[in-house]
Amino acid sequence: MNPEKDFAPLTPNIVRALNDKLYEKRKVAALEIEKLVREFVAQNNTVQIKHVIQTLSQEFALSQHPHSRKGGLIGLAACSIALGKDSGLYLKELIEPVLTCFNDTDSRLRYYACEALYNIVKVARGAVLPHFNVLFDGLSKLAADPDPNVKSGSELLDRLLKDIVTESNKFDLVGFIPLLRERIYSNNQYARQFIISWILVLESVPDINLLDYLPEILDGLFQILGDNGKEIRKMCEVVLGEFLKEIKKNPSSVKFAEMANILVIHCQTTDDLIQLTAMCWMREFIQLAGRVMLPYSSGILTAVLPCLAYDDRKKSIKEVANVCNQSLMKLVTPEDDEPDELRPALQRQAEPNSEGSVTKQEGSASGGPDGSCDSNFGSGISVFTPVSTDRAPVTLNLDGIVQVLNCHLSDVTIGMMTRIAVLKWLYHLYIKTPRKMFRHTDSLFPILLQTLSDESDEVILKDLEVLAEIASSPAGQTDEPGPADGPDLPVSHSELQVPTPNRASLLNTPSTKGLECSPSTPTMNSYFYKFMINLLQRFSSERKLLEVRGPFIIRQLCLLLNAENIFHSMADILLREEDLKFASTMVHTLNTILLTSTELFQLRNQLKDLKTLESQNLFCCLYRSWCHNPVTTVSLCFLTQNYRHAYDLIQKFGDLEVTVDFLTEVDKLVQLIECPIFTYLRLQLLDVKNNPYLIKALYGLLMLLPQSSAFQLLSHRLQCVPNPELLQTEDSLKAAPKSQKGDSASIDYAELLQHFEKVQNQHLEVRHQRSGRGDHLDRRVIL
């Protein structure tokens, strides 16, 4: 500093003392400056006051010499003290040079700058609020200062500034939010602690409504929640908890839509505490905002669904995610199935009521849990843009939801509970929005069929519920052309086909569905036949699926749909099956289910007596396909009490190729006859006179069997048949013998027998062709 320079009105002694390295001498100079400025204030000499402040600022506080800067800082503080209430007129000139010194490399100088600013603010009080942003910016830097003395001084200044803001009602929140939004992303733990402390203070001031600006800072708060410091995380939890309490008190003033995507992102993070806290917020948002959250459903599901598969280590997240999922599902209503152009133009995003619309909340109001757990779905975070904006009609983004559900169902790594939740969603959407959902059925159908191979029975059950709803919903009826009728036309499994109107009319018989079925009409739609074709195709390509899960799948379908329709359509399709070996296997499976499953009790009773035209038509349809397997054909005749025809069939067995597999099936039929399902047949053996062909048929089976346990079993049963002469009564003598149980003029048994011979000849030709290629193992038994 040039000693010859004129610093008037500062005296040379004051200038010399301000430049001294000793603090005490600089303090004496500050007292002199205070006295000098007081005189100028008394004289109302603003020109000299400004000159003193400018000199202290330019020549001292901003000087290159460190001692001069220290002197300038204490001089500016002295000016502020002397000015008193009038310091507000000169705050810009007083504060700016002091804030510049906050960036000084000398820690002692930064401390003096903090001390000087404290004195300036203490005098000015509320007058500093117009300069709050620059003060806050400077303090946020000092909060992360490495020097403990500087940090301690900044904390004193920080508390003073907080007291002033709390006392005042003139705080400019709108002007402060941009700075807060910028500073909240600081990675320094001390700066984060400083930011959180200020948010807590602002939230506690009644006249400051920080909730209006929560969308601006919510993302940053969740970032801070992931800090490594335990204390900072706890502080951030408290802040988020206070905000959530405020949201519950005043839901009508909350901008839920603006924060939805922020929560979606943080619900997918790998940090356990962030994920759980965000999920708790999401739960409250869905329950408070209601249908306002619908446009964000695809994003919410992306975040929530993977959490449903978490194990007990992540139980808290799983439970909250489950509540979110259930609450979101309830928001989808039948009105979402209305065409968008027909929806009421006046429907707007409903502002939730503060009392009536707020449902009972679950969990604590803290906004975050005490426990922690990890997330395994943090990668690939995405934000979903909503279809609707504020004040626009709430629109369900069904395309986005279906895409998310399809993606999760296709992912083989997804857990069982997530897959079940996806299937529940699909079922719910088909119930609530069937018309819109059927636009996506062609894309969903393959993955739903593939899911039948899942390892979990529960997943398969839910999958079958969805497929059953698709197959039975009236919304799925189309006018597409179906395959031509006729037994000689094969059906290509590579193409989805629908029934013709004639065939559809055969399937439109009354039925009852399972307990957890939709209220839709059980009449089968166009997708029912598609489903049957593709299901049989899957059984054909995956024989293990047929063997392990086939009976289970078919039995459950019989509960969910109409059993008669299922057997009628499958028999119709198998009649045109080109793979005769698969047809025989499938017929055997269906026959076993028909004869043994409790789910088919009603259908068995319908077939037992063939009293109605419908039951006779069903028998003929089943019979034609059952001809792919001779033994199952006989068992069908036993079930329907067509004993004479059963005897005629067994007579034809002498012309068939008797193999080990054939004899095994006869053996199983004998075992089946001893089961409760054929109790009525065994009792009919008492009426020898009226059931001669039943006894002949059983003896025919006995003659087919080699000397085995089945032979002995059937032989013992036939030995129990009483002598008809011993059982004759007057009534029995008058009664005319019946040639055929269940005989009906509408059934052409001769034609059925011809059809049986035709099918068996086809099987024989196929076996001979295989034998000619050398890939057929001759398993015939020489009797």
Describe this structure in words.
The structure is a single chain. The chain is mainly alpha-helical and 783 residues long. It is built from 37 helices and no strands. The protein has helices spanning 12-18, 23-42, 46-61, 66-83, 91-101, 107-124, 132-142, 148-167, 173-183, 189-204, 214-225, 230-249, 256-266, 272-289, 297-304, 315-331, 398-410, 416-432, 434-437, 441-450, 457-472, 501-507, 526-541, 543-548, 550-560, 563-574, 580-596, 601-609, 613-626, 630-639, 643-652, 660-673, 679-684, 692-704, 709-719, 730-734, 749-773. It is rod-shaped, with a radius of gyration of 44 Å. The N and C termini lie far apart (128 Å).
CATH architecture of the domain at 1-168: Alpha Horseshoe
Q: Report low-confidence residues grouped into runs of 5 or more.
A: 345-391, 480-522, 774-783
Kindly state the number of beta strands.
0
> From the helix content, strand content and strand pairing, which structural class follows?
mainly alpha
CATH fold assignment of the domain at 1-168: Leucine-rich Repeat Variant
Measured by DSSP, the beta-strand proportion falls in: under 5%
Largest sheet: none
Q: Please, how many helices?
A: 37
End-to-end separation: 128 Å
Q: Report the CATH C-level class of the domain at 1-168.
A: Mainly Alpha
Radius of gyration: 44 Å
CATH homologous superfamily (4th level) name of the domain at 1-168: Leucine-rich Repeat Variant
Spatial shape: rod-shaped
What does the average pLDDT come to? 84
Give the helix proportion (percent range).
55-70%
